[in-house]
Write a structure and sequence with these properties.
Blueprint: E1 3-4, E2 6-8, E3 11-13, E4 17-23, E5 26-36, H1 39-57, H2 61-77, H3 79-90, H4 94-115, E6 121-124, E7 130-138, E8 141-145, H5 153-164, E9 168-172, H6 178-189, E10 198-200, H7 205-214, E11 218-224, H8 227-239, E12 245-249, E13 255-258, H9 264-276, E14 288-292, H10 293-308, H11 328-344, E15 347-350, E16 367-370, H12 377-380, E17 387-393, H13 396-404, E18 408-409, E19 411-415, H14 419-428, E20 433-436, E21 452-453, E22 456-457, H15 467-470, E23 471-479
Parallel strand pairs: 1-5, 8-9, 8-11, 9-10, 11-12, 13-14, 13-19, 14-17, 16-17, 19-20
Antiparallel strand pairs: 2-3, 4-5, 6-7, 7-23, 12-22, 15-16, 18-21
Helix pairs in contact: 1-7, 2-4, 3-4, 3-6, 4-5, 9-10
């Protein structure tokens, strides 16, 4: 089996070791072998990106537009092939994998358009005889560190704006899902970018990511991952000489509030989609289902019945609703939390069992806990698996209080037919994204993504708001002639 190599300065480069990429739906299946970069490889990529910055930062907008559009068009043209690769290595169902690939292509197409809309301002000065211009300029070399749960979409929404606004890129994908990242990087490397503008270094965060953070030649770091790692990166970037600009997305413990007046079918579908699809491995997953007491029993019964009809199986099989957990360590974390929930006194109303299928894999039935409190660990800590807690609330006011009683603030949802309560919730939910009668997971590619509190730090990702991170603002004065 040939090894997929790093891409540094426009050339493919060996690493210090090789990682064997295993299919979580069938652990007998090797997706591929991928080079693991060393610190020296990371520094070489940074050097190539630094050398390419002067030319790319001054490149014409038509050149950037054409490159980004070419990338987006190829991704979408190959959506079935790339979606199958994604599902095979990460465990999303095939429709989810294809959908994620399409989104990645749309992101590149969106930023191809944004490249042609780079704008500034010209203002009159308060002092006579002066003109004032406000423009945006690229930052320099940007280090991008991405997670495993969206192995092509999250890299896309970091890489596309970085290139659009004239930065050069060093990219480190999650260690154990390199296949989609490599395929995306191969497309980018053939899109006509000058050598060194885009660089891929696969490997461990403690090696490759650390080199990005330590290097004085990296101007900014965009990271998606755990809270603890994000806080460590923030501290290092702020203490660095010179300081680095940072953008952090770090997870959530998202509430879905269900009020007495909710349409039951809508509420159940929102809960199933938000909590359990993509195997619950989404930072926007609604893992806290906060239900007012008048509909609590009816909701739990309907949700349990709906869960009974879900098929957990190989991600590539027709009819599969939920694929496997991504790997053994994540499966162990999920089952550990299920045991924690039992010990805390929550009732395991459904699922939470290891499953056997025709192929060996990391299969877990979706776990639903009832009789939970918001103080339990399973209601406060991000599990990142198909595990949800149902928490009773006295009324809307109590439900809102519970929803906001968390260190996180990424996404929040409500199911209600009341305009009064939906309007109030949109204003008072302490989250960066609020959903009414739709799942907490799933946002459009052209609008900002991000949260509050421990969920996010720094400017938003996606859409036109991405320029807030990927550019710096310059104010220039000219003496009028």
């Amino acid at each position: 089996m040939s090894v997929f190599k790093n891409i540094i300065g426009g050339q493919q480069a060996d690493g210090q070791s090789v990682y064997r990429n295993i299919n979580p739906s069938n652990t007998n299946d090797t997706v591929g072998e991928y080079a693991q970069g060393s610190k020296a490889d990371a520094l070489a990529a940074i050097g190539a990106a630094k050398a390419a910055f002067a030319g790319w930062s001054q490149s014409g907008v038509q050149q950037r537009h054409e490159a980004l559009k070419k990338i987006g068009d190829e991704i979408i043209a190959r959506k079935d092939e790339l979606g199958r690769l994604l599902s095979r290595e990460e465990g999303k169902t095939l429709p989810e994998g294809v959908g994620e690939v399409v989104r990645a292509g749309q992101i590149f197409q969106f930023f191809a358009g944004e490249a042609l809309r780079l704008a500034g301002e010209k203002l009159p000065s308060v002092r006579a005889g002066l003109d004032v211009e406000i423009t945006r300029e690229p930052l320099g070399v940007v280090g991008l560190i991405t997670p495993w749960n969206f192995p092509i979409a999250i890299p896309a929404w970091k890489i596309a704006p970085a290139l659009c606004y004239g930065n050069t890129v060093v990219f480190k994908p999650a260690e154990f899902v390199p296949g989609s990242a490599w395929a995306l990087s191969d497309i980018i490397s053939r899109a006509g970018l000058p050598d060194g503008v885009f660089n891929l270094v696969m490997g461990r965060g403690s090696t490759v990511g650390a080199a990005f953070i330590e290097s004085k030649d990296v101007a900014a770091i965009s990271f998606t991952g755990s809270v603890n790692t994000g806080r460590s990166i923030a501290a290092q970037c702020i203490a660095a000489q010179p300081m680095k600009k940072i953008q952090l997305e770090m997870g959530g413990k998202n509430p879905l509030v269900v009020l007495n007046d909710a349409d039951l079918k809508t509420a159940v579908e929102c809960a199933v989609n938000g909590a359990f699809f993509s195997t619950g491995q989404r930072c926007t997953a609604s893992s806290r289902l906060i239900v007012t007491k008048g509909i609590y029993k009816e909701f739990v019964a309907a949700l349990t019945e709906r869960l009974k009809g879900l098929v957990v199986d190989d991600a590539l099989k027709d009819g599969t609703h939920i694929g496997p957990v991504v790997d053994q360590s994540q499966l162990d974390q999920d089952t550990d939390y299920i045991e924690v929930g039992r010990k805390e006194g929550a009732k395991l109303a459904f699922g939470g069992e290891l499953l056997r299928r025709s192929n060996p894999g990391f299969y877990l039935s979706p776990a639903l806990f009832t009789e939970c409190s918001n103080e339990m660990r399973i209601s406060r800590e991000e599990i990142f698996g198909p595990v949800a807690s149902v928490i009773p609330a006295d009324n809307y006011e109590d439900a809102l209080r519970l929803a906001n009683d968390t260190e996180f603030g990424l996404s929040a949802g409500i199911c209600t037919t009341s305009l009064k309560y939906s309007s109030h919730f949109k204003r008072h939910a302490e989250a960066g994204m609020v959903m009414v009668n739709v799942p907490t997971a799933g946002v459009d590619y052209h609008v900002p993504f991000g949260g509050r509190k421990a969920s996010s730090y720094g400017p938003r990702e996606q859409g036109a708001y991405a320029k807030e991170f990927h550019t710096t603002v310059k104010t220039a004065y000219t003496l009028a002639q």
